[in-house]
Amino acid sequence: MKGVNLLLELTEGARADAEARRAELSYEALEERARAARQPIDVAAALAHDPGHTHVIAEIKRSSPSKGALAEITDPAALASEYAAGGASCISVLTESRRFGGSLDDLRAVRARVDVPLLRKDFISDEYQLLEARDAGADMVLLIVAVLQPERLRELHAFALDLGLSALVEVHDPSEIEHALAADARILGVNTRDLKTFEMHPERFAQLRSQIPAGVVAVAESGVSQLADVERYRADGADAVLIGEALVRDGEPQKRVREFGAVR
Ligand SMILES: O=P(O)(O)OC[C@@H](O)[C@@H](O)c1c[nH]c2ccccc12
């Protein structure tokens, strides 16, 4: 159960960090500012199935619990510009600081540089974090079904949409897909990394794909390192792929995003 505990630890850590920020800026003050911020882009539309192209969600991630340090990334906005120039449909910015080395400042810096839809990638369990996401310029937030009770998932999903944000709802198994769909998820991400063992199970995407209804965006997450991986997920029915490590480690991320996105 190590991985489940890790997910809970990450979620509790992220919540404690948000509580500390809340002591500086009240919920009410943040809500007022967030609702006055730039209107988010509809990411479900931006990621809708395109027969000629696989949408690439390109991630900015410095480190991870499974791999440790990945890349220094002193200028996240510069990396984001490379991703955007390569045609990324969305950019995922890790804002979790304890194990992934990210921050909301990274998200703000990226927002100031690119017009591409942005995902706030974090361990979200509270409305305050959704307000922060919109305030920092995100268009989409990550909601991980494994760490949220069904009712909480529904509430947070509804509040995200109320704020104009889209939600990437992350699932690992059939029952989590049911919870996600019951919460009215429009964008489903199948994480093929097992969070208990950190092992990759790329076959899991194909196994779960048939449960994702037409019209709901299907995202294959994790473990994409080469063109063949994108081709495989595409053949299995992915509308989009979410790629972190391979892109932050690549010397030519723009070229790599373009190459991956050209898969039909
Ligand atoms: O670096 P990879 O193997 O390409 O994986 C990217 C992404 O899927 C991964 O970072 C991820 C998937 N779900 C998450 C939830 C939280 C933090 C990170 C993640």
From TrEMBL:
Encoding gene (name): trpC
Residue span, Indole-3-glycerol phosphate synthase domain: 10-260
Pathway(s) where this gene product acts: Amino-acid biosynthesis; L-tryptophan biosynthesis; L-tryptophan from chorismate: step 4/5
Catalytic activity: 1-(2-carboxyphenylamino)-1-deoxy-D-ribulose 5-phosphate + H(+) = (1S,2R)-1-C-(indol-3-yl)glycerol 3-phosphate + CO2 + H2O
Keyword field: Amino-acid biosynthesis, Aromatic amino acid biosynthesis, Decarboxylase, Lyase, Tryptophan biosynthesis
Protein name: Indole-3-glycerol phosphate synthase
GO molecular function: indole-3-glycerol-phosphate synthase activity; phosphoribosylanthranilate isomerase activity
Entry keyword annotation includes Transmembrane helix: no
GO BP, sorted A to Z: L-tryptophan biosynthetic process
SUPFAM superfamilies documented for this protein: Ribulose-phoshate binding barrel
EC numbers on record: 4.1.1.48
UniProt cross-references to CDD domains, sorted A to Z: IGPS
Listed InterPro entries: Aldolase_TIM, Indole-3-glycerol_P_synth, Indole-3-glycerol_P_synth_dom, Indole-3-GlycerolPSynthase_CS, RibuloseP-bd_barrel
